[in-house]
Specification:
EC 4.98.1.1, 4-stranded parallel beta sheet, Rossmann fold, iron, porphyrin biosynthesis, cytoplasm
Length: 337
């Protein structure tokens, strides 16, 4: 039915997809790092410690000391050509490639939970483009409240401010999806075939969470273990060949174990001379994979007697990585397109 005379044009009838990753600072300087860390570390999903106990530590110590160190770390991996972190580069590319794969019928955009572009700004942009239905895709194969849930929280929180809300779907965890498992396996096989050595052990290093979060009912640990079990089956490896560890712990609280850095050290001291590490929980390379695994843990391994160390890259925006993202999106858009 035609619009009444003089009715303003209203874009409508489109479907949107919003890819969302963890976040990135806008720069490596102290101010940018502090702003990013403050947003991240004040998220109640990330730090569940009571505010009265946590804020004095955060504002009195952490935000006065940590920005400089993290800024130096980011500077070692910074994309100088685009003046941005690799995570921003990869996430943008994933969105652009997904848009080409899906065609004109779907509008694809990307955002960061912490930093820019914000979830709110990109939801608004999608709605302004005529998207009446939007799929929010937290880029985390394994569900955790501190990752997947906080992305969804932010999206729903923004909808509270909107008079005219689009319909919203969110992507569930896909830690055991055969397409994802096969992509990880192929990535490992291809990369290992390029090495001049055969790793004695391969670690599947996942980002850690406090053990107390798991004890409260978070399924993350179980999702990581299932991913690893299915990956072993696909590769034909046993538990000694592919071992699960957890990285990036923060603060004095006990986190999920075994810890990646402690495992790397123990393996080297036990006589293991060749090691490879893959990071199945990350869909794109970032500080935690490039610097923490590729530099810090490589140094730990060699310092304790290891010789050959390899970091297996994330799926990123390569063909296998994009096949996973497209598969998940098409599955979750059924009935909409």
């Amino acid at each position: 039915m035609p619009l009444p005379p003089h009715h303003p044009a209203v874009p409508h009838g489109k479907v949107g997809v919003l890819l969302v990753n963890l976040g990135t600072p806008d720069g490596t300087d102290r101010r940018s790092m502090r702003r990013y860390l403050e947003e991240f570390l004040t998220d109640r999903r990330v730090i569940e410690t009571p505010r009265l106990k946590w804020y004095p530590v955060l504002y009195g110590i952490i935000l006065n000391t940590r920005p400089q160190k993290k800024g130096r770390d980011y500077a070692t991996i910074w994309n100088r050509e685009r003046d941005e972190s690799p995570l921003r580069t990869y996430t943008r590319s994933q969105a652009e490639k997904l848009s080409a794969q899906l065609g004109d019928g779907v509008v694809v955009d990307w955002a960061m939970r912490y930093g820019n572009p914000s979830i709110a700004s990109r939801l608004d942009a999608l709605q302004a483009a005529g998207c009446e239905r939007i799929l929010v895709y937290p880029l985390y194969p394994q569900y955790a409240a501190a990752t997947t849930a906080t992305v969804n929280d932010k999206a729903f929180e923004h909808l509270l401010t909107r008079r005219w809300q689009p319909a919203l779907r969110t992507v569930p965890p896909y830690h055991d999806d055969p397409v994802y498992i096969d992509a990880l396996a192929r990535s490992a096989e291809v990369h290992l075939a390029t090495l001049s050595f055969e790793p004695e052990v391969v670690l599947a290093s996942f980002h850690g969470i406090p053990k107390s979060y798991f004890e409260k009912g978070d399924p993350y640990y179980c999702h990581c273990q299932k991913t690893a079990r299915l990956l072993r089956q696909r590769l034909g490896w046993d538990e000694q060949r592919l071992r699960v560890t957890f990285q990036s712990r923060f603060g004095p609280e006990e986190w999920l174990q075994p810890y990646t850095d402690k495992t790397v050290e123990a393996l080297a001291r036990s006589g293991v001379k060749s090691l490879a590490v893959m990071t199945p929980g990350f869909v794109a390379d970032c500080l935690e994979t490039i610097e923490e695994i590729g530099v810090e843990n490589a140094d730990i391994f060699r310092h304790n007697g290891g010789v050959d160390f390899a970091r297996i890259p994330c799926l990123n925006d390569g063909d296998d990585g994009m096949a996973v993202i497209e598969h998940v999106v098409r599955r979750e858009l059924q009935g909409w397109i």
